[in-house]
Amino acid sequence: MNIIAITANTSWYLYNFRKNTIRSLLEEEYVVIAIAPRDSYSRQLEDIGAEFIHIDIDQGGRNPFNDIKALLSFYSILSKRNVEVVLNFTPKNNIYCTIAAAFNKTKVINNVAGLGFLFVNEGLTSKIARVLYKFSQQFADKVFFQNEEDRELFISNNIIKSEVSERLPGSGVDLSRFVVIPAPDDGIVRFLLIARMLYDKGVGHYVEAARMLKKEYSENIELRLLGFLDVDNPSAVSKSEMQAWIDEGIVTYLGTSDKVEEEISQVDCMVLPSFYREGVPKTLLEAGAMGKPIITTDNVGCRETVDHNINGFLCHTQDTFSLYEAMKMMIEIGHTKRLSMGQSSRVKMQSTFDEKIIINKYIDTVRCVLNQK
User: Fold this and answer.
1) What does 251-306 look like in DSSP terms, one character per residue?
2) Could you report the per-residue pLDDT of 229-267, keeping only the tens digit for each?
3) pLDDT tens digits along 310-345
4) Structural domain includes residue 184
5) Where in the sequence is the domain holding 282, given as residue range(s)?
6) I need a labelling partner for 362 at 20 to 30 A (CA). Which of 80, 168, 190, 339 fits?
7) Same domain for 366 and 284?
8) Are 17 and 152 contained in the same domain?
9) Are 290 and 261 in contact (CB under 8 A)?
């Protein structure tokens, strides 16, 4: 039996974003090894049939010795387990596991899911990362991108050759899990932002817009936040900042959840005013699949999810007033129109972002690279 490895910088990511890919690979009778740092989701990866192997990855760290250690660990695992194809997700995995695979003659399929500020920031760390990407990706057999801008950026910077690259519609959405549930028509319009609580994700603009809207609509609107707080990131919202917003009565913070569909089902509109260089935000796909209209920025990755005035509104990046206007418009159009926009979101997800499209592409690509051995 062919042995396939799938790697990311957290077990949480593999379980929440690639669980059905793993299941499909198992159904094709591949042996699947999940490689990631151990966390509370590692056991769940084993429960669905994957073998789990722990690896230390310093996600946001800049210590070269930790990265060399990760590279050597990847090589050891791939070599000892005779892995034939490895599917990499998240940046350091794309770089270091690809280099390790080259030494082991393992076939590599990478996924570039957004670039953050990697190609915008001119700091030393970003420059080193770009060099490492350029060196490592010459060994990849296939590189998938979640939006065309990122793909063209890699090609124009000679990081990859066009013929090994392809765009996929994000990570897709499970249409059987995320089903249409209309918001209640009770006179309260509820907005929700789901993301890591980072200012780069537009959390600050969302709070400022919420402050403006609360003055106009008072108790007739609710503005909710869901996602990891106080994370290891220079753009992170602190616990004290979040508590100050809560005490002011602007937003409700819901913490984190493994059942985001329960939170999405209750709201009228999903909002993500990100100016981060996204892939295609998973939360917007999930909300769209559940029949919710979307407000997001005319930004790389985000704009792919919205047909303006059809299933939502696009606003300008880093522009609180533009976001405020879009949210105000969503309130003023009324419940029936919001439901109609939400139905358009569902149709868009069905036609373009069905997770089965992505999974089938991975299965076909695995077969193709195995035949090249």
Assistant:
1) -EE----S-HHHHHHT-SEEEE---S--S--HHHHHHHHTT--EEEESSTTTGGG-
2) 988 788 899 999 999 999 999 999 999 998 999 999 999
3) 999 999 999 999 999 999 999 999 999 999 999 999
4) no
5) 189-352
6) 80
7) no
8) yes
9) yes
